[in-house]
Fold this protein.
Amino acid sequence: NAGVTQTPKFQVLKTGQSMTLQCAQDMNHEYMSWYRQDPGMGLRLIHYSVGAGITDQGEVPNGYNVSRSTTEDFPLRLLSAAPSQTSVYFCASTPGGFPDTQYFGPGTRLTVL
Amino acid sequence: GQQVMQIPQYQHVQEGEDFTTYCNSSTTLSNIQWYKQRPGGHPVFLIQLVKSGEVKKQKRLTFQFGEAKKNSSLHITATQTTDVGTYFCAGKGGSEKLVFGKGTKLTVNP
């Protein structure tokens, strides 16, 4: 199993550009989440999904869209990038149940100029 | 909304010293999880605590969940250089959302 994969690993955007961060998992997990990590801020939840076709907002959803058309994929779209979105983005999946382990991908480091 | 506070933000120790990080929630938690993130890496699950007053051990690591299920701690005995990283607690209240603390960054001087 590859676990949780994320692409790209690094990305530089200009203000106003749009892009999609890809996330895929091959563990057949129902739950998937997107987090952003900024220095001194820990991990903040952007959006999450409890199953295909179901998504909901987390703590910091503004400027981001998600969709969940399949169990495996959970892309994160930046609609119009802003410098405040410079961050490291982690995707995570969890099977639910006990323990409620979050399996994190390797992350995408995004810089918005 | 639910908040999870973690202290200290940074901790520097000499190898062999003990280390403790504390986590406090503004609301009662159904469970609390602990993660470790090595420098440049991604968070890795360590443990989940569910029961009031629960104590679990993993080798030199001891995890506790408070009686009121609003606080938790992670204690490392006799730190080693391999313990370097940032330790996060994450709590789940009444929703599906997991709220992370800001983490404690541990550095160990050999």
